[in-house]
Amino acid sequence: MQTFSFNFKKILTFFCAGFVFVALYSCNPGDARKNPPNPELRVKKNLEEGRGFRLNNVIKNRRKGGGNFEFASSNELWRASLDTIDFMPLSSVNYSGGIIVTDWYSDGANLNESVKISIRFLSNEVSVDAIDIKIFYKECNQVMNCEVTQKKGPLLTELKREILNKAALYKKQTKDKNFEEYTGSAGKVD
Question: How many whole angstroms separate alpha carbon 134 and alpha carbon 117?
């Protein structure tokens, strides 16, 4: 039987080297014309825009019993889309695939007509080009004689506008909630 020796210094060195590599590799100063030359001002700007992290937040989350797992709830377009079509039954929802498909829905006024909506996410940005919506109508003359057509029109425009407005509102709420004034005390020990 083979025995393994536990060498704490080697493991610690390995993890520290990995952390330094990741930290250096992920540094992206960006466009120098858009960033202030003063490091304190750059830190302040990045933290105010939500592009940084604070070690105290990581430690607080660990004490609460784990990390902060938001998954799809952090994507404003995803949340806005689900909130907009929440009255319809869902047929298929795949966050990693970026698609929401509803089941056939009829408002009850005309049982021979129903609608199905497909929303495909092309990016995580809140913009008109970020989502592709398709609306299908099913009209049945008899029980088994149905015709399905894809239509564009005012419902498509209204649905897209509603989703984008909600997503913009969610994005603003998240930004306001996560905003913390930079006090310049980073790295200082009390």
Answer: 6
CATH number of 72-175, picked from 3.30.530, 3.40.50, 3.30.310, 3.80.10: 3.30.530
- Say if CB 165 and CB 156 are below 8 A apart: no
Q: The pTM is what?
A: 0.56
Predicted confidence (pLDDT) at residue 113 exceeds the cutoff of 80: yes
Neighbour order of strands in the sheet with 90-94: 90-94, 99-102, 113-121, 131-140, 146-151
Q: Taking the alpha carbons of 134, 174, 28, 127 in that order, is the dihedral positive or negative?
A: positive
Task: Please give the residue that has the higher pLDDT: either 155 or 32.
Answer: 155
Buried residues in 43-60 as b, exposed as e (16+ CB within 10 A): bbbebeeeeeeeeeeeee
